[in-house]
Amino acid sequence: MTVQPLLTGAHLADAQIERILTSSRPTRAQVIGPAGSGKTAALEFVRDGLDDRGVETHTFGAEVDIAAIPAEAVLIVDDLHLIDEEGAAPITERAHTPGAGLVVALRPGPVGEHVRTIERLLQRSSPPIILGEVSATEVDAHLRAQGRPASCACIEDILDLTGGAAWLVTFALSHDHVAECRGRTDHLALRRDLQNQVLQRVATLDAPLRRFIEQLSLGTDPGRPPDGHAEALDELVLLGHAEGLLFRNGRMVPAVRTAMRSSVTHRWGSTDSTSLAEEITRGCLEDDDSIELLLDGVRDPRVGDAIAVRADELRDDRPDHADRLYRVALRAGTRSSDLAQRRARAAWAAGDLDRTGLLVDEAITKASSPADAGLADLAASVLAARDLMAMAARVYGSRTYEGATAVRAEIAHIGSGHLEPHRAPVVLPDDQGVSSQLDVALYLLHRGLRSSLGRTPSPTALSDLVRASELYTASGTACPTPELPAVIAASVALGSGDLATARQVLDDAVTGGQGRQWARRRLLLWQGLVAIQAERPDAARRAYTLAQQESAPVGARDARLGHILEVTLARRFGDLAALQASWADVRGAVAHPDVDLYTIFPLATLVGAAARLGDSTTLAAHLQLGLDLLDRLGSPPLWSTHLWWAGVQQGILLNTPDALAPFAKALVGAADRSPLAATMASAGGVWVQVLAGKVDPDAVEDAARALGSAGLAWDGGRLAAHGARRSTDRRVSARLLSCARDLHPKESTSAAVTQPETAGVAAVGAESELSEREREVARLILKGKTYVEIGEAIFISPRTVEHHVAHMRRRLEAGSRSDLIAKLRLALGATQDFARESPNRAVRV
């Protein structure tokens, strides 16, 4: 198959050449491009075009008398850069004559002053025609013009291989391509032939330039030139570009780099291997296919060690590529005992728990010291991810560690319910100067976690943990840890009743990529749990979907979190049938008791769901293990309240007052030390009275709204709904039903069945712009009703109406009464009928 010879010359520059040929001014131009870019073909196109127009042309040569050539004729000179000053003197003289026709072609790069003079003179007549790089559009147009269009994959792979270098693209297109070329997989022969072309060209280079190209192909720095000789390095770059081996900025053409690396092993025996190993050590080892080719057959531990060091640098950001480099290092001669732990770190960063476990096992058998801190962190974190926090703590045992490992050991020990006061306190490494972000993050994590365990919670505990999470994210570390700082901080925020902080901590951690790739699924699952707690079911489902889309294998800990999230969504935002189906799916997966401090909150949500189905046995062991663990830690309120509350709810749902009593007692006992425990204790007392048939609407509503303010809106909605069902007063029932709708819209569904007068009111999602009750209030406001009249119309108190109005103003961001009225009309699609019905009435909003 024949390729058009003008592909990389006049064929791609024909528009520029055509402008020169059709200009009314004398034909004066220069064509500049690396070797093989098509300069000669461009000159031939110019000559043919001038001949067609009857213009006299002369080609430079020894037999041509330039002085005798008329000015209106055109002198054509190829390879101007090869002509010395004496030989170019008549060309220079002609260039000085503005009306004399002259077209030259030359390579970019170091040239004599006489050549530069000619370039400057010709640039006054027209811009130079620059050849050298080819685009995908140009290749596609060329192939279509030849009647052999190629697929996008084929063209893209050719340009990836060649970098668009014209001489290599021309050669690539001269190859026969299969009818449906898929690119990479169909270009094996092309890759081989391109390498041969490059190696042949490099073999013809002068020794300094050839050595320079070899060094660059290894990714090495050719070194800082001596003072006063920096221009020598610049000249080599220009020469490499002129030969078509480098781009103008000194970057190597991809096919050249691959070809040069393929020849390393042929030179290995005759080259100083120490020097070559040092070159590779200094190199950056780019992410391309030639790394394996570069070291094929090379067995030198120095090279393997250099590659392993580079893999260490890439491990957190690109763990898959790091693992690939570790395998290359192994083949090059690095001892497997030196790499097992480092490969385990890469597998951990990638989120591949099974592979991490296998490599940790290998590293343990080859470890020189059983107390290796990094290996202990890996082994413990793998066990924690498998939901075996107690076993993770046993990995650290009673050995004394320092720095980051000391904090991780503490996370594991405290997580399994062992405070171990005998351990030395963690301190910042002040004696080493300025501490890193990670050092400070772990110190704050240690301090905040310890403080959160007090019987009287420290006011700084949550602040320390939040800042620890922020700094941990900022550090960008992917180091293994038994539990993430964001999870610990969010748990303490939930135990403080501070739902907003829990949400913010997790949102920031997800956005900032805390822990990198391996941590993302767990953070998303916790984000979903907190979204459920905040009455944001759509956000919870989104987080759950994203967590399921993570490609890494799921560990037992994350699997259990996913099951709990699924069941909790069904419990709070589905019907009984959905809950039954969800519980049936996950019951077996959560039946094996294994509880640690950082799963207390998820366990608490699960206990209530099981109790709703009358199942008091499946999680009985879990509940007891959680209580025992908390007891060993001194029953800290920040960690205990949600499990105690779950025990109260279980007693209510199962109608077992005796089982409820110990949990209620614990909440009452912590009430003076924990605002959340006080809220729960008070609400629990009101709930018991409601179940006994004593419904005080003010007490019920106050307790329900207090629960909502403490991050327990769903529980508050259930309390209000129970009060509505138990009351015999229709107005009280309607009022409490409205409160239930405010706190958790779906919670009113079952109560509405017993309230015919409200059966037409539909519950809406918590993330809607306005709830259905707020829409009712809005319609009456637009009719001009007062707060008292609105309350009488829909059986709620004027105070509740005021609460609805304030809520609507916030949601609609209304700055004034008139602004609110206008936005309510838009929200409801209101018409003039409202105004006509009550033209002279106004309502205070």
Could you explain how this protein is built, in words?
The protein has 845 residues and is an all-alpha fold. Helix content is 62%, strand content 2%. It has 4 domains: 123 residues, Rossmann fold (3-Layer(aba) Sandwich); 189 residues, no CATH class; 222 residues, Serine Threonine Protein Phosphatase 5, Tetratricopeptide repeat (Alpha Horseshoe), CATH 1.25.40; 77 residues, Winged helix-like DNA-binding domain superfamily/Winged helix DNA-binding domain (Arc Repressor Mutant, subunit A), CATH 1.10.10. The chain has a 5-stranded parallel sheet, with helices on both faces. Helix 3 links the parallel strand 3 and strand 4.
Query: What name does the CATH topology of the largest domain carry?
Result: Serine Threonine Protein Phosphatase 5, Tetratricopeptide repeat
> What is the overall pLDDT average?
83
- The SS-based structural class is mainly alpha
Oligomer class: single chain
Architecture (CATH level 2) name of the largest domain: Alpha Horseshoe
What general form does the structure show?
Answer: elongated
| Beta strand count | 5
Radius of gyration: 39 Å
Point out poorly predicted stretches: 1-6, 224-229, 747-768, 830-845
Q: What is the total domain count?
A: 4
Distance between the termini: 83 Å
CATH class of the largest domain: Mainly Alpha
Strand order within the widest beta sheet: 2-3-4-1-5
Strand percent estimate: under 5%
Largest sheet: 5 strands, parallel
The helix content is 55-70%
DSSP helical segment count? 43
Keywords: DNA-binding, Transcription, Transcription regulation
Protein name: Helix-turn-helix transcriptional regulator
Pfam families: GerE
Domain HTH luxR-type: 763-828
